[in-house]
Amino acid sequence: MDLLNRTAPRAFLGAGGFMAVLAFLYVPGMTAVPDAGELEPLQAASAEETRIEILGHGQTFGGVLNRVGVPAAEQQALLLAFQEHASPGRLRVGTEVALRSLRGADELRGIDVPVNADELVRLEREPMGWKSSIVKTPVWTDTVFVAGQIERDLWSAVVLNDDLEAMPRADRARVIDLMDRVFQWQLDFSRQIQAGDSYRLAFEREVRPDGTMRTGRILAAELINRDTPLYAIWFDLYDDGQGGYYDLAGESLRRAFLKAPLEFRRISSRFNPNRLHPIHNVRRAHIGVDYAAATGTPVMATADGTVTIRGVQGGYGNLVEIRHANGFMTRYAHLNGFASNVRQGSRVSQGTVIGYVGMTGTATGPHLHYELHKDGRPVDPLNVDIPAGDPIPADAMERWTAESDYRFALLDRAQRGPELRMARAAAAPSAETDEDELQ
Predict the structure, then answer these.
(1) Same domain assignment for residues 127 and 190
(2) Last residue of some domain: 357, 379, 401?
(3) What HEC string does 328-360 produce?
(4) 0.85 surpassed by pTM
(5) What is the pLDDT, as a whole number, of residue 28?
(6) Contact at 8 Å (CB) between 311 and 292?
């Protein structure tokens, strides 16, 4: 009984205390939680400090290691570890070598050496020596919407477009290449684009931390050429990441042959059965098209086929001849050199680089002489009718309709003016991000 008398007041006080807390928390009319204020952020110095050494003219990676006082034996170990992924002799002038160590310590903990825009070699000290690994440059993905009017030429209309001023100038030029690749079967950009044409684009790109573009792909495009609208919608038919371009009706833009074997080029001489030869000064049929371009410009096979000639052929100079299906044959002459994968009898795919522009043989300047033959007779590559590729199959039509409607609607954003839409993240991920997360 005494025990009950002693514990009862405690129970009562406990219940009373609980009720008092509830009464305190409930205040009629209170709609917000009281603000407890904010603490000032704490600034903590990194445990690691980094020293940057820039590779100058005539300098080597080994020289940098020697300059910062790395012992000779350790230099050799570092160079061997580096060579597992890259050649020290191929580092470019201006490469920033990052030397990492614990704050206040003299001993190196690690070294980061960029080998290209998308990779760096990371060297790290371990108990058994130095190990190396490749670190991918992180990227994020955004979608760009842009529209423009062609007043003078396509290059000016795209590269000087104010809507793209946030992009590096070199990347703006790459947008032209993307457009050319999309419409390469419908238009020859060197001769068919004219003042008064216009374009709208929606394209996505992978962006590095420095703002440059790793890759880019047009999702939807509209090109008004001589008052005729051309449309391209990207669609991944086999869901394998390759994809292709189709018009609004689902017809493939791809043709058996490219319009031209060079990207964004200038025609210097056309197909002409009665041309005055510039060297021999006689009337002689010019059975191909000449494309003026700088020496070393890549030359592409215009269609799938088999190489029948690779070598020097008289006035043609360095020549590649390719046999294609349905009685077609192409020639690529005056080349400065051949691509390493091109051999007589080898198979090549449309768009594969087969050689490089030069002026070998009978040529007055660097250019590509390109011929197209059908059933043994030369035809004008600029006027031949090439059949289209396969359209969207019936079993993929429902998915095509949904995706093409969405991508076509993206062009309306371009019409409203400049806009960048972040598709994945507002900022670049850290260098430790797993590569799979970026795919």
Answers:
(1) no
(2) 379
(3) EEEEEEEEEEECCCCCCCCEECCCCEEEEEECC
(4) no
(5) 56
(6) no
